[in-house]
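can u do me a favor
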């Protein structure tokens, strides 16, 4: 349920999906870019005819279309190194998902054990009240018969209120443990923990903290993610250095246009017209005539103009970085700092995990020793309580000795239960650090 519903895990998964898309885009940047442009409009007044480049003073409908192709031939391996950098980032994000899953599984396991622990503590508290009620019934009978010490009856009633208060405290602790588990599962369902579903193993843990740390370095997703982040940061330095290197690219264009005033002219015949000039022949002025060819203008179709006006451009461009305000130098310096930060973060993570393992291993060993000691303590207090109960019921012992013996036994049993689960919790944490499935 937690792996399906937990909000923190969902958020980590979304971040990983972002890294995946960035990696895809980095690979897609290797491909040429192809873009088209089209426009159409109306121009009124004095303008230049895009078809003839002549000045005109009339309404003009114009249209242009262009197709651009750009392809990077060489840019200092910036694109290739970016692809590698984004690949490391993607793999690191996938490792962080695994890390989040492992952490979530650990937290659910610990929360589940805490519910079991508080359930056992509540059971002990209820059992304690049952025993107290039996004693209260006996003391009430003696009190009604005016036999024995009346103070014992009052003391046992006071003990009952203490036991009832302990039950309320245990119920509150159990409810808090269930709420913590429900929050991890992101569910409103009622939590019922079954002890039979989990293996309670009390064998002494044989691995040292150093053994656990070595396994953690090899298997823990946290270290794998950090190592991949270091590799990605180092690739970032190579990406920044590409800004020092000239970039060579290929470009191509296909262009065409349309003008509403563009026309074609067809010869329709000729006519004799007077030119307005004169010549003198034998002292007589004669008008000059000429033969002028006649034409008929026709608008050129939109698609025909697009076809007739096609032109292409191809070439190679070289972009040489000469001076850019030290931007390239500073970017390389920044990427080097990020690479150093990633190395420090890896070392810091290593130290934190090492310290955590040492502390958990120490607490685990202490809990195991306490559990062994408390087993003997419970056995001793059980015998003490058995004897004092018999003596108290037969009027040989007073209530103080009886209740002291009873409280000692109840507290020892509660401490034994807590030590039992504390040990199991620490073992689960150590196995988590080793990279084992819980």
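np, heres the sequence
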């Amino acid at each position: 349920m937690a792996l399906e519903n937990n909000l923190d895990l969902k958020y980590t998964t979304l971040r990983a999906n972002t890294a995946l898309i960035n990696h895809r885009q980095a690979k897609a940047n290797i491909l040429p870019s192809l873009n088209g442009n089209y426009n159409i409009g109306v121009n009124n007044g004095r303008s230049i005819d895009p078809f003839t480049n002549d000045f005109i003073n009339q309404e003009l409908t114009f249209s242009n279309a262009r197709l651009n192709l750009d392809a990077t031939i060489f840019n200092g391996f910036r694109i290739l190194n970016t692809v590698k950098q984004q690949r490391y980032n993607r793999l690191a994000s996938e490792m962080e998902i695994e890390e989040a899953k492992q952490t979530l599984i650990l937290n659910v396991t610990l929360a589940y054990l805490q519910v079991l622990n508080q359930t056992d503590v509540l059971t002990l508290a209820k059992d304690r009240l049952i025993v107290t009620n039996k004693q209260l019934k006996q003391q009430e009978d003696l009190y009604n018969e005016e036999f024995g010490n009346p103070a014992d009856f009052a003391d046992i009633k006071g003990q009952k209120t203490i036991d009832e208060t302990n039950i309320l405290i245990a119920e509150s602790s159990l409810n808090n443990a269930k709420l913590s588990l429900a929050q991890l599962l992101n569910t409103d369902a009622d939590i019922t923990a079954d002890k039979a579903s989990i293996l309670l193993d009390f064998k002494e843990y044989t691995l040292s903290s150093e053994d656990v740390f070595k396994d953690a370095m090899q298997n823990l997703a946290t270290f794998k993610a950090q190592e991949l982040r270091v590799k990605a940061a180092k690739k970032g330095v190579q990406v920044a250095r590409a800004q020092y290197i000239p970039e060579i690219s290929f470009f191509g264009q296909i262009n065409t246009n349309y003008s509403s005033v563009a026309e074609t002219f067809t010869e329709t015949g000729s006519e004799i017209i007077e030119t307005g000039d004169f010549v003198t022949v034998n002292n007589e002025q004669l008008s000059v005539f000429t033969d002028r060819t006649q034409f008929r203008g026709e608008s050129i179709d939109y698609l025909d103009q697009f076809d007739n006006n096609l032109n292409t451009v191809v070439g190679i461009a070289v972009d040489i970085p000469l001076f850019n305000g030290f931007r390239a130098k500073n970017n390389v310096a920044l990427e080097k700092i990020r690479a150093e930060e990633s190395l420090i973060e890896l070392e810091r993570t290593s130290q934190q995990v090492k310290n955590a393992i040492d502390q958990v291993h120490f607490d685990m060993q202490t809990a195991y020793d306490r559990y062994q000691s408390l087993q003997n303590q419970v056995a001793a207090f059980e015998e003490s309580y058995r004897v004092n109960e018999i003596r108290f019921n037969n009027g040989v012992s007073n209530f103080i000795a009886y209740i002291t013996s009873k409280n000692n036994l109840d507290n020892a049993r509660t401490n034994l239960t807590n030590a039992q689960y504390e040990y199991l919790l620490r073992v689960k944490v150590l196995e988590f650090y080793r990279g084992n499935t819980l």
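The first helix runs from residue 2 to 5. hope that helps!!
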